[in-house]
Amino acid sequence: MSRLDVDVLIIGGGIVGSSAALFLAQGGQRVALLERNFCGAQASGVNYGGVRRQGRPLVQLPLSSRAHQLWGGLQDLLGTDGEYLRSGHLKLARSDTDFASLQAYAQASQGFDLDLQLLDRSELRRRFPWVGDIAVGASFCPEDGHANPRLVSPAFARAAARAGAQIFERTAVTAVEHDGQRFQLRTESGLTLSAPWLLNCAGAWAAELAARFGEPVPLTAAHPAMLVTEPLPPFMTASTGVEGGGIYARQVARGNCVLGGGRGFALDADRARP
Questions:
Q1: Which of 1, 123, 135, 166 could bridge across to 92 with cysteines, CB 3.0–4.6 Å?
Q2: Structural domain span for residue 175
Q3: Residue 234 sits in a domain of what CATH number?
Q4: Residue 272: predicted pLDDT
């Protein structure tokens, strides 16, 4: 195959590009997705894995609520649950000022069915005895949780393929043009693709792609520090973060604890420096 004409071209096979491919294909569109590596191999597959609504800006909550419903049906949608667990999301306050911020957020987010529960120091210790003494209180969202990004992101691409999308992995795009009516893409393999619509889902490389069409987008690649422990006896019963940032942690069913925090900077989109 040297040329392919479709309805929609998608550049980038992370969870955004792959989920777009899935739903477009389910809607009857002819879709081609191009990923220069393997689908879900970049940030979508190596992140913390949190699936939460708590703490998001209020303007994001309507969309987050719709996404929450989709996550609840992940098994039917993708053919795997992706180790998705609604463990609850616990957000800790390290000071009275932080706790006041949690209280304000709980008040402002009413109407979005988060069911936020504000816990003072004594209630926090009673329900989550593994939390350190530095916490003066917390906010708990019982239906937030976490999933395994290594499983979920590629699963979206596989589901898109089953729905009829054409997925091209290890296919780097070498040229992108627009003739006034259609986008034209050329790849290293010699394949040429054409479509009236192009979705830019290239992640850390999205700004470079947008700039080709005179639409520069300010974008900085950041690389948070992450680590995974050996399996430990179960003790952490909720995905946990801290008001104001700093560190986040969760424990998976196998016992491994996933922790993140801090931020490195990017030498470029591919390489990080601590």
A1: 135
A2: 3-46+150-211
A3: 3.30.9.10
A4: 52
